[in-house]
Amino acid sequence: MTQQLPSPRFSDPAVFGRVAVLMGGTSAEREVSLDSGRNVLDALLSRGVDAFAVDGIPALVDAVRDGHVERARRVDRVFNILHGGDGENGVLQGLCEALGVPYTGPGVLGSALTLDKIRTKQVWQAAGLPTARFARVPAGGDLSAAVRELGLPVFVKPSSEGSSVGVFRIVEEGDLEPALEFARAYPGELLAEQMLTGGEFTVGILGDVALPSIRIVPAGEWYDYHAKYIAEDTQYLCPGLDGDQEAEIRALALDGFRAAGCTGWGRVDVMRHADGGLMLMEVNTAPGMTSHSLVPKAAEQLGVDYASLCWRVLEQTLAGGMGGAQA
User: Fold this and answer.
1) How many CB atoms lie within 10 A of CB 303?
2) Which end of the chain is more exposed for a tag (fewer CB within 10 A), N or C?
3) pLDDT tens, residue by residue, 70-100
4) Which residues pair with 200 in a beta bridge?
5) Which of 27, 29, 88, 315 is the catalytic position?
6) DSSP label at residue 13
7) pLDDT tens digits along 33-75
8) Which positions are annotated as binding Mg(2+) 1 (predicted)?
9) CA atoms of 186 and 197, how far apart (whole Å)
10) Does domain 134-194 have CATH number 3.40.50.880?
């Protein structure tokens, strides 16, 4: 499948002004966010962008406030690489819009919706898009009953976390107890979800383009936190499919992204059923940008290196782009 990205619209880094690279924060994904943020910052600096690091939303508010007082320290736009929590749930997006500061990634609605896996799947169901069978488990709810309803094997995961935080793979009854122990202490909703065995894929989205799919083949039984961020033996096959199937998965990912109210850039995770059917799983609105991350791997297949990818994402904050708030 031949595909090309449009050429960058700008070549002068001065068009971006002073860019706050927002990273870190207080979510369970803090360390991954710091890793991503350092990489993005280095990439933007290498392209001549006047970029600086900001750790968390309170520090961003201080930076914007200081910039109102001292113009030389202004914040002209935000590159959001704050994974999880308020970086992806609409809080940061609403704040930036209230302050009139353009930012990368989807807007308030798309960000708030897609951090909640359960509500995202409900929207996909309403739109007639395929997603794996699931059961909602409210805080203090009966996880065992939800698992029985779906039938083994299943995954159990928090509805509003990422990076495989709190995910349990339950293949037999003996696997259930650690998930039950987690559920007793966890204050939020859990998602019990049918386990699909036909392959795990992800598709990066950049503007109106779905990047080549990546098939993820971990050395272990599944793609857990270790396989994502630590292991060196996880295989990433890109493109993940061939011919019509590759076209299908990219089209499905783009449809799922848009149906969830998202624009700009992100990543859509897709699983394949044993019968070959593709199922939407979740959307990431501030995808990882570490050395193990997947959107940079897919962009590279189209001849876009890491620094150029960061540049293209940042371009979406300028008038005519496809991101959240724009200049």
Assistant:
1) 9
2) N
3) 666 799 999 999 998 899 999 999 999 999 9
4) 216, 271
5) 29
6) G
7) 999 999 999 999 999 999 999 999 999 999 999 876 566 679 9
8) 269, 282
9) 28
10) no
Indicate the CATH number of 13-104 among 3.30.429.10, 3.40.50.1000, 3.30.1510.10, 3.40.50.20.
3.40.50.20
Structure tokens at 38: 């350092």
Instruction: Name the residue among 176, 102, 101 with its Cα closest to residue 146.
Output: 176
Which residues face 201 on adjacent strands?
Answer: 215, 270
Residue 293 annotated to the active site: yes
Closest CA to 208 of 257, 244, 171: 257
| Cα angle value 107/136/222 (rounded, 5°) | 80
At 202 the pLDDT is 97
- From the candidates 27, 36, 160, 163, which is the catalytic residue? 163
* Residue carrying structure tokens 């002004």: 17
- Residue 249: pLDDT over 90: yes
Is residue 273 a contact partner of residue 17, using CB atoms and an 8 Å limit?
no
Residue 161 falls in the annotated catalytic set = no
Q: Report d(CA 70, CA 63) in Å as an integer.
A: 10
Domain spans of the chain, in order of start: 13-104, 114-130+196-301, 134-194
pLDDT tens for each residue of 262-303: 999 999 999 999 888 999 999 999 999 988 899 999 999 999
CATH number given to 114-130+196-301: 3.30.470.20
How far apart, in whole angstroms, are the C-alpha atoms of residue 159 and residue 166?
Answer: 10
Helices (H), 47-190: 57-69, 91-99, 108-114, 117-126, 143-150, 176-185
The C-alpha angle with vertex 326 and arms to 91 and 79, in degrees rounded to 5, equals 60
Annotated binding site for Mg(2+): 269, 282, 284
The radius of gyration of the chain from alpha carbons, rounded to an integer in Å, stands at 19
Annotated binding site: 269, 282, 284
Marked catalytic residue, from 88, 200, 293, 315: 293
Catalytic status, residue 144 = no
What's the average model confidence in pLDDT over 10-30? 94
- Reported as half-sphere exposure (CB side, CA atoms, 13 A), residue 227 has a value of 13
